[in-house]
Design a protein that fits this description.
The chain has 262 residues and is α+β, with helices and mostly antiparallel strands. It contains nine helices and eight strands.
Length: 262
């Protein structure tokens, strides 16, 4: 049994879809993305327009949030990542308990960067806690490498940037050719492990989160204290991949058989 009321969920899905689109959405785009009938989607859009939450551009026929609504003028703060975080947080909390390590959840942000939109910090004496306001470079973080590897290979070079790529720590891989090779391994393996390239004493293990269309929309990451990572390396990798798969299922992506752990 689900606690969702279908009609309310459909309205919120539509608002979140429009909020995430910088140039608005067409009716046909909303219909496909929500897997909903065209007639009912149109009526929902018209209702949102009539209530002042959404405006329709008569030239492009695209629907976008009104400036007032986007700015929180009705007392709402529209977070395009709200549905992602809601799906991920309970699974992140379970992962923290299972591993004794902190978890973060990252999404695409600006050019060359991801950002953390959720974090659950482990309740242990020595732990890794991320600065959630710190930009997450694509080239030297587990979250970044997972997000980039989920895009077409032809996009990787541009996403990484021309450089020179700065060494964040003495362990940071800065050679672009080497990074592109690493991205290929990340895609084949379905996870990334980054040892102290972004933060001394910290190891990141990340796996991709997919939406219902099979697109990589986020990365789930365990931030481990390095000196205890190797003893549980295989367990951490398997647990992170399973957790990312569980979040993907919550977003409507088909389940897949878990990887064998030896």
């Amino acid at each position: 049994m689900t606690d969702n009321v279908l009609s309310a969920a459909r309205v919120l899905d539509l608002i979140e879809l429009i909020a995430a689109a910088s140039d608005g959405v067409l009716l046909r785009e909303a219909t496909v993305r929500l897997n909903a009938p065209k007639s009912s989607t149109l009526m929902l859009l018209r209702t949102l327009v009539n209530r002042g939450y959404v405006a329709r551009d008569p030239l492009s026929d695209r629907y976008a949030l009104t400036d007032t609504f986007r700015a929180g003028g009705y007392g709402w703060h529209v977070d395009p990542h709200a549905a992602l975080v809601a799906a991920a947080r309970p699974i992140m909390e379970e992962l923290v308990v299972a591993l004794g390590e902190s978890t973060t959840f990252g999404v695409f942000h600006a050019a060359g960067q991801a950002k953390v939109v959720a974090q659950v910090v482990a309740d242990v004496e020595v732990r890794y806690a991320a600065d959630t306001d710190r930009p997450i470079p694509f080239y030297c973080t587990a979250i970044g490498r997972v997000l980039v590897s989920g895009r077409p290979e032809s996009d990787w070079s541009q996403m990484i940037g021309d450089g020179p790529l700065p060494a964040v720590t003495r362990h940071t891989v800065t050679d672009k050719g080497a990074i592109l090779e690493i991205l290929g391994r990340v895609r084949r393996q379905g996870h990334a492990v980054v040892v102290e390239e972004f933060a001394l004493g910290g190891t990141g293990v990340a796996a991709p989160v997919f939406d219902r269309e099979g697109r990589v929309v986020a990365a789930l990451n365990a931030g481990c204290v390095t000196n205890r990572f190797e003893d549980k390396r295989d367990r951490v990798i398997a647990a992170v991949k399973a957790a990312a798969g569980a979040v993907s299922e919550q977003l409507g992506h088909p389940a897949r058989a878990p990887d064998a752990v030896t």
